[in-house]
Predict the structure.
Amino acid sequence: MKDIYCLAIESSCDETSMSIIKNGVEEIETVVVTQIDIHKRFGGVVPEIASRNHVISVTMVLDELLTKANMIIDDIDIIGVTYGPGLIGSLLVGVECAKTIALVTGKPLVPVHHIAGHIYANNLKKRLEFPLIALVVSGGHTDLVYMKEDYSFERIGSTLDDAVGEAYDKVAKILGLDYPGGPIVDKLAHMGTDTYELPYPLNDASYNFSFSGIKSAVVNLVHNEKQRGNDIRVNDLCTSFQNRVVGVLVKKTRRAIREHNVKNFVVAGGVAANSFLRESLEKMAKEENIGITFPEVKYCTDNGAMIGAAAYYAYKKGIVSDLKLNAMAIDSLYSGTKSNV
């Protein structure tokens, strides 16, 4: 069978990234240009600034990628691109780049949902085994997904408001920590003690999540302590917050695994790099006697490699687009059988 090389483009937020992926499992080369230092001064991503910097970076990233891979565009078989969800201005840069390459070369254009990319980042480490449950934890998403086969996505639970990564970053901001705050909260939580009374977020019998309440509880706690003239024990508060958030994630994931009778479990998204979440889920997987896979840390945050991994299987399913493909800030992956493109 002929090998398929995918040129994959990811620009949904503040990383301009391109990769060349072989057969959905082998990374040939990846280039990432991040904007973290640019947005740090604002305490978060500024959409207009992000899209302008994608425009500056996109052709340079493509040139660097082909040079490092020692390949030319004629060596590529398909063009994969994140079409959504994400920041619309940022997405448009990647989509227009992909459409231009597809137009000039005549190569198939494969639209990839951003969350499918995060899930398939695991495929670069170990081939996905089905059926499986995927826990997607990122700055914009917190989902439990059942997959019976490749590119079959059934969402069984989701966040009703804030995503878990967003909650981490907002708590970090409340505590005066640097951006991005999630990794800092994780680090400080390992040095603290669970001494603050915080609610367990949506600790119910559903598979859904809600993190706005615990975020508000932290805001109120910090405000009240300052009003009383008390110092905030930052490490302890990080520990108390993280214990409750991770506790709920693990509890609901365990139940989903049991009720769907699966033996395979994958974690996806930027928060998959969280060390305490990894430790807790590994412990749970061992107790349940199931296989667990995390992406390599470099594939947890946004990158072209994950898009290339997903694009291969989308292409195999016949998911291709014409040059009318447009970016979508909001879009549902979960149609039960395939991407909702």
